[in-house]
């Protein structure tokens, strides 16, 4: 399967772009959703987390209390490392499986921290959704009902914009000046390119 890694900073509109690809019949796999799936009740990872952090990280309905876990790993770098070591390989393995099982000419793997977590090896090509920082801050504050300081802290923890653009094979601009039609046209143009690349990939495979 030919895999496109879709990424971008917080608030860049990755989901919107992924929806345009979905509308063209391209399967889209969301790393954030996969990360939620591996800690569902009944999953081995949830059992391991409960044993490590104690029963207080489980909510009455049996699901993981993300806030509790976040507080624990925020206060303790060793706990964060333990959790990452547990979850990252599981998430990676699950994403690879989902990509292999996807039905379509190629698939999109949407990974917010593609470059930060050095996951480029999972994909054949990278697509970055790009907006300027001021727009990023404003959109995220509106969407997540959060403060400017909090958004700036998240941006600071992510790959710098220039570095992300330098690592990208393809870029879609998604600032406020870009209309919905322009977005769709940009996606459609890339879709044609990806279809050709996917066909070449299959003929070589």
From TrEMBL:
Enzyme type, top EC level: transferase
This protein's record includes keyword Disulfide bond: no
A Pfam cross-reference name: CoaE
Single GO cellular component term: cytoplasm
Catalytic reaction equation(s): 3'-dephospho-CoA + ATP = ADP + CoA + H(+)
Record SUPFAM superfamilies: P-loop containing nucleoside triphosphate hydrolases
Family: Belongs to the CoaE family.
Name of the protein described by the UniProt record: Dephospho-CoA kinase
Gene from which the chain derives: coaE
């Amino acid at each position: 399967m030919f895999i496109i890694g879709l990424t971008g900073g917080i608030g860049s509109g990755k989901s919107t772009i992924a929806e345009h690809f979905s509308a063209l019949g391209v399967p889209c796999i969301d790393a954030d959703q996969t990360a939620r799936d591996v800690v569902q009740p009944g999953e081995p990872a949830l059992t391991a987390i409960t044993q490590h952090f104690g029963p207080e990280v489980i909510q009455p309905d049996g699901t993981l209390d993300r806030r509790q876990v976040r507080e624990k790993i925020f206060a303790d770098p060793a706990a964060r490392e333990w959790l990452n070591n547990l979850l990252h390989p599981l998430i990676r393995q699950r994403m690879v499986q989902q990509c292999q099982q996807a039905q379509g000419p190629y698939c999109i793997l949407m990974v917010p921290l593609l470059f930060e977590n050095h996951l480029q090896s999972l994909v054949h090509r990278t697509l970055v959704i790009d907006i300027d920082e001021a727009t990023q801050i404003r959109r995220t504050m509106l969407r997540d009902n959060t403060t400017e300081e909090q958004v700036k802290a998240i941006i600071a923890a992510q790959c710098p914009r220039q570095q992300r653009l330098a690592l990208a094979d393809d870029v879609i601009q998604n600032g406020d000046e870009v209309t919905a039609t322009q977005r769709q046209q940009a996606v459609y143009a890339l879709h044609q390119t990806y279809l050709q690349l996917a066909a070449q990939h299959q003929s070589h495979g």
